[in-house]
Specification:
The protein starts with a helix and ends in an 18-residue tail after the last helix. The protein is mainly α and 550 residues long. It has a two-stranded antiparallel sheet with strand order 1-2. The chain is built from 26 helices and two strands. Helices cover 61% and strands 1% of the residues.
Length: 550
């Protein structure tokens, strides 16, 4: 039928545009569906052929201005109704020609115009791609070509958006709904896929679009804003009715393989890993020992090539992408061949901690870096590295942790007189930071000496005798330990910390306990984390113990 457009007089085609909507297509298709029984391939092929020709004809009619503008044709109403037909028997061979037609004759800008006639045929193509599945099968896609049809639909939309990005005159607000629509299509198709590898092909076109629009910063910024909101489950509604946590790691895999801009890649990965752990917290996953508290899945998904690694790390530090840094650490540390290499990692983590601008809402993630750094430093001592090589790192870490845990900023002129800006970081994080800083300060007895044995001397809270008088040590390091301990204990008198009385008392007890030494810092952290960050699933790895160990 569509061949009439090219092979017959124009009047024939215009007549067809008026005649076609008058037919009872529901009855026609019901008849073909009835005879397309299982075990009769020829009948099924006939139905697919009919559906394919009908779909292409609708595409031809919808892109003909004369027919679309003819008030007597009723073609747009008919096409709108065609979106409700059962297209599940349409194979890819019948689906593709319709896209070929609208690609050849359509205007890419039409995809941004919700009032264009293209919108009508795209609704039919959406239905034919089985994004909602077959109505007779409870919403499940039944055609084995459904993934191919869905991919063709997604690729077409992304290609048209890429062409639109080359026309600066097209207004940026027009992209918003289209990009969200494509993302919704991708998530639906990926959720229907049978395995992660099959789902990956649906995400790749969108990330390729992100690469293709690199010269249009405004479009890239808009895309990233929308993508990150969707990936973090910040958008709700009919397009994104519920979080789809199993897709989070899929986005990580695709971002590593496809996204070229390091900043975009890091932001996508960080948001997706965050969303993944948020779901683990909500689902109360109990497989922590088997999955390293969920980190095994992250490590399997994250892949950064050697030549990209430095740029990746620098970008993570600049973006404050702590989960990305921690995952990268877990991947790289097993490759260390000696203590010197591990010490190099420890110095790198110290540098990251000094440079990262901690963001409100993400502050708990810093606990991961602090924990890993202190774990590496204790390994140095446990395997024979002189404390004099470790003490300077702890000395440098102390002010970094303490500054992050202040209630008000103490730097600058205003900070020096007590008028610094009030911290936006959570009280839980500030309590944790002060406890950790106080404990570490009590273990640092000089620039080169650490308390590495239980009940070691020179604890800042241990009285010493000067003649007949008992007093506390007055060395610079002891005074620092006493200052940090007093700062921690002073929180008991602040109303905002009232609800944290239990972990605060635990922390003070640990800090003042002279039986404790640097080895116990991990125990302190693993004890405080469940009290202060019970819903931060990414931190559960800190609390893990080998089976059988208390």
């Amino acid at each position: 039928m569509a061949e009439i457009h090219n092979d017959h007089p124009r009047e024939c085609f215009l007549f067809l545009g008026r005649f076609l909507p008058e037919l009872d297509w529901n009855a026609i298709l019901d008849h073909y569906h009835a005879i397309s029984t299982v075990g009769v391939p020829s009948q099924a092929d006939s139905l697919s052929l009919l559906l394919g020709k009908l779909l292409r004809l609708l595409a031809v009619l919808c892109t003909d201005p004369t027919i679309v503008q003819d008030p007597d044709s009723g073609i747009l109403t008919f096409v709108d109704r065609a979106a409700t037909f059962d297209w599940s028997m349409l194979n890819m061979s019948g689906f593709q020609p319709a896209f070929k037609w609208i690609e050849d004759v359509g205007n890419p800008a039409s995809v941004l115009n919700p009032d264009s006639s293209l919108t009508y045929i795209m609704k039919v193509l959406y239905a034919a791609a089985e994004f909602k599945g077959s109505p007779v099968m409870g919403g499940k896609a039944t055609n084995e070509d459904a993934p191919l049809k869905q991919l063709a639909y997604i690729e077409y939309k992304c290609k048209q958006l890429e062409l639109c990005s080359q026309q600066p005159s097209l207004g940026l607000p027009n992209y918003n709904d289209v990009i969200l629509g494509v993302f919704g299509n991708i998530e639906v198709a990926a959720m229907q896929a049978t395995d992660p590898a099959a789902a990956q092909i649906f995400v790749t076109p969108l990330f390729q679009l992100l690469n293709a629009c690199a010269s249009r910063r405004d479009i890239v910024d808009l895309m990233m804003s929308l993508l990150l909101r969707v990936m973090s489950h910040d958008l709700n509604g009919p397009t994104f009715p519920r979080p789809r946590p199993r897709l989070s790691m899929l986005y990580v895999v695709c971002a590593c393989q496809t996204v070229q801009a390091p900043k975009c890649m890091v932001r996508i990965i960080e948001v997706c890993v965050t969303a993944y752990f948020q779901h683990r917290a909500m689902s109360k996953a109990e497989d922590d020992h088997q999955t390293a508290a969920g980190w095994v899945k992250v490590l399997e998904s994250l892949s950064v090539s050697n030549h990209q690694e430095k740029k990746f790390i620098d970008t993570c530090v600049g973006e404050g992408a702590v989960l990305c840094l921690y995952a990268n650490l877990l991947q790289r540390l097993p490759c260390c061949q000696d203590l010197l290499q591990e010490l190099s990692f420890a110095n790198s983590i110290l540098s990251w901690c000094s440079l990262i601008q901690i963001k409100a809402g993400d502050e708990a993630k810093m606990v991961l870096l602090w924990s890993k750094l202190l774990e590496l430093l204790w390994r140095q001592i446990a395997y024979g590295t002189p404390p004099s090589s470790v003490a300077p790192i702890i000395k440098s870490l102390l002010p970094v942790i303490f500054r992050a845990s202040e209630d008000k900023a103490s730097d600058g002129i205003l900070g020096a007189i007590g008028l610094g800006k009030k911290s936006l970081l959570s009280v839980e994080f500030r309590l944790f930071g002060r406890a950790l800083a106080a404990f570490l300060a009590c273990q640092l007895t000089s620039d080169t000496v650490l308390r590495v044995q239980p009940n070691a001397p020179d604890h800042p809270s241990r009285p010493v005798m000067l003649g007949n008088t008992s007093t506390l040590l007055k060395t610079p390091h002891a005074l620092l330990g006493q200052k940090y301990t007093s700062s921690l204990d002073a929180l008991k008198n602040k109303s905002e910390y009232t609800m944290l009385a239990v972990p605060l008392n635990i922390a003070v007890s640990y800090v003042l306990d002279q039986q404790r030494c640097l080895r116990d810092v991990q125990t302190l952290m693993s004890t405080l984390v469940p009290h202060l960050f019970p819903n931060e699933a990414s931190l559960r790895i800190i609390c893990l113990r080998p089976p059988g160990q208390s």
